[in-house]
Design brief:
Elements lengths: L6 E3 L3 E3 L4 H6 L8 E5 L5 E5 L3 H4 L2 E5 L5 H13 L4 E5 L9 H8 L5 E6 L3 E6 L8 H25 L5 H27 L1 H7 L3 H26 L9 H26 L5 H25 L4 H34 L7
Parallel strand pairs: 5-6
Antiparallel strand pairs: 1-2, 3-4, 6-8, 7-8
């Protein structure tokens, strides 16, 4: 760290000198423009202009010796950290065998398209600017989608109506697209201050949005797992079905409370309510599991036990979101629990 004294120049302008070593490293000389970004915490961030590297991040990777699963994870990783152009190279100069895997990998990545294809390489390019749509609205949409998925998955299981399964799978794809886009925005903000400005938010808020998006995607995964339980006959007695529905409703409540308190700046008491609801739910589920072990219906008990496990994970995701809301409020010195 270096310190500088503020000087008054011409009686109207405050100036400070820049560290010479930093200026040389950044190729700064007289007449070069700099971008100044005032931060909510009172700090001032300085960025060289233009920052071409941050505005157009590129990556080149050889895919000769990796399988399709590794290829998919590689593309997703570069996308999530904010890479704009990804070149995939196969030095064998033979028939390109990964086209289908690439198309599948980018199908859920908003804005990423195939720009160029040859026998030796495929170039992927992000075509959507960070400032095109509100991050807040994306996460709100994500929340509504996920809660609807959980409700439909529970209904599908308890009623045996599998007609919603395809709809749940389709919404899972949209959830992945939205959540990955939000996580990408956060990673972009770490290297591109202009991206933060275009999005009309702060790095702190983007971190929170990214965390919520990951947790909501996690809940969507459990909703799909619950819906898959309908592949086997399941017809619990009325009292059991009613109890399962009640447990699932309260798990959804923790998610709704946890997300709402962050997204709407609601009172922190809602976040603590979500945590308390989840704790009570876990105790009730533990008791219910003990009861299942004493039943003489092993197949049904196993199915119910699986549902309860998924439900606990859903509630825990709600607690994670509530905890993030509490931490954000504390960070901003706005945590009021009275």
């Amino acid at each position: 760290m270096e310190t500088r004294k503020v000087q008054l120049s011409g009686g109207t302008t405050y100036t400070i000198s820049l560290p010479k070593s930093w200026a040389i490293e950044q190729n700064i000389e007289a007449g070069v423009g700099l971008r100044l970004f005032p931060q909510p915490n009172g700090s001032l961030r300085i960025e060289t202009a233009p920052n071409d590297r941050a505005q157009n991040r590129t990556a080149t990777v050889s895919v000769r010796s990796i399988d399709t699963g590794a290829l998919t994870r590689t593309i997703e990783a570069f996308y999530l950290v904010g890479t704009d152009s990804i070149t995939l190279i196969d030095e064998t100069n033979g028939e390109w065998t990964f086209h289908r895997a690439i198309a599948h990998a980018i199908s859920g990545l908003s804005g990423l398209e195939i720009l160029e294809t040859t026998t030796e390489q495929v170039v992927l390019q992000n075509l959507i600017d960070a400032g095109g749509r509100s991050v807040h609205k994306r996460v709100l949409r994500l929340k509504r989608l996920v809660l609807a998925m959980v409700r439909d998955a529970i209904d599908t299981l308890l009623t045996g109506d599998v007609t919603l399964n395809e709809s749940i799978a389709d919404r899972k794809t949209e959830v992945e697209t939205l959540s990955w886009a939000v996580v990408r925005f956060f990673w972009q903000s770490l290297s591109d201050l202009q991206a933060v400005e275009r999005l009309g938010t702060s790095r702190t808020e983007l971190f929170g949005y990214s965390h919520l998006a990951r947790q909501l995607k996690r809940v969507a995964d459990y909703a799909v797992s619950i819906a898959k339980l309908t592949t086997h006959a399941f017809d619990p007695e009325a009292a059991t079905a009613q109890k399962l529905e009640s447990i699932a409703d309260r798990a959804q409540t923790t998610v709704e409370l946890g997300a709402t308190v962050f997204l709407s700046d609601s009172h922190a008491s809602l976040a603590f309510e979500a945590t308390e609801t989840a704790e009570q739910l876990e105790r009730e589920i533990d008791s219910f599991r003990s009861e299942l072990f004493r039943r003489d219906t092993p197949a049904e008990s196993h199915r119910i036990s699986q549902l309860l496990e998924y439900t606990i994970h859903i509630a825990q995701a709600g607690v994670e979101m509530a905890s993030m809301a509490i931490q954000q409020a504390a960070h901003q010195n706005e945590l009021d629990v009275c």
